Amino acid sequence: MLQKLTKDSHTNPFKSPFSITRVQPGNILGSETADTAFGPLAIIDHAVMKKGLTIKMHEHVNDEILSYIGTGVMHHRDSADFKAPIARGKLMMMNAGASFWHEERINDNEVEMLQIFVRPNETDLSPEIQFHNKPEDNRNWYLMVGPKGSDAPLYLRQKVYILDAHPKAGDELTVPTYSGFTPFLYVMNGEISAKTIIISKQEALTDLVNPLPPIVASKDSTLVLFFVDMNAPMSLDGTISGIKK
Predict the structure, then answer these.
(1) Residue 112, SS3?
(2) Which of helix, strand or coil describes residue 25?
(3) Spatial CA neighbour of 13 closest among 3, 27, 23
(4) Range of weakest confidence among 64-73, 218-227, 236-245
(5) Would you say 47 and 18 are in contact if contact means Cβ atoms under 8 Å apart?
(6) CB 109 within 8 Å of CB 87
(7) 205-236: burial string, b at 16+ Cβ within 10 Å, e else
(8) Cα–Cα dist 47/20, whole Å
(9) Predicted confidence (pLDDT) at residue 32 exceeds the cutoff of 70
(10) What is the torsional sign of CA 164, 64, 21, 54?
């Protein structure tokens, strides 16, 4: 059965000088679980960051973090003084492990982005950072992230796949399947429909038993699609991913 996560279930832990809409994907399960994670998919922070903002050097521990930019440029710097601009089409995966320090800075235009937090399969793994350039406006699904050893260009230490698509209004997309994995489809921007259900910006869709049906974009949209092993072993010691409520 299709289940929808509506935007009124989200929290807003930060509102100024940047805003975060905190999506806790486990809320789509309703009262079935006390945890707000969807398996090891812990949190999606949907952020809008203003020009001139600097988030000073801070530590993450035991978080697997994908930075996914919708608009603008975010400038990354880490404790090794490595610097890189992250923009639409350039992905950054921070596998924080035992400890990873980084800073984020917005020099020019406002940034809209997702920071996606996944619980790793073990505590205190080695800290790593990865980058990948992908198409900016792929209308069909593009595999961005997968478990270590998979065909995905970026890896995380968990049984989770992450894809994106940018369908135009009127496009119909077939949703892929991964055997043994449960889908979670998030609308970053735009609006889609699945059967009779309409899913708008900052809303999500799942089916715990069946594959998701084909979706139709009613507006130009940015979609992020997760496939999650709901029973995967996971660490609950993450700075952000370990949050349960």
Answers:
(1) strand
(2) helix
(3) 23
(4) 236-245
(5) yes
(6) no
(7) bbbeeeebeebbbbebbbbbbbbbbbebebbe
(8) 4
(9) no
(10) negative
Residue with token string 């699904």: 141
Instruction: Give the N- to C-terminal CA distance of the chain in Å, as an integer.
Output: 25
Closest to 226 measured CA to CA, from 180, 184, 176: 184
- CA–CA separation, 227 vs 159, rounded Å? 8
Q: Quick one: tokens of 240?
A: 């952000």
The percent of the chain in helix, strand and coil, each rounded to the nearest 5, is 5, 50, 45
Q: The sheet that has 142-147: what strands, in order across it?
A: 2-5, 204-207, 182-189, 222-228, 160-165, 142-147, 154-156
Tokens 């399947």 sit on residue: 177
- Specify the pTM: 0.96
Of 71, 23, 26, the residue nearest 48 (C-alpha): 71
| pLDDT, tens digit (0-9, with 9 covering 90-100), for 127-141 | 999 999 999 999 999
Number of neighbours of residue 135 by Cβ within 10 angstroms: 11
**Secondary structure of residue 28 in the 3-state scheme:** helix
> Residue 45's closest CA among 16, 87, 4, 10?
10
> CA 223, CA 199: separation in Å to the nearest integer?
11
Residue 123 DSSP label? S
Share of the chain above pLDDT 70, in %: 99
Provide CB contacts within 8 A for 127, sequence distance 6+: 95, 96, 97, 98, 99, 100
SS3 30: helix
Would you say 29 and 219 are in contact if contact means Cβ atoms under 8 Å apart?
no
Q: Cis before residue 17, ω within 30 degrees of 0?
A: yes
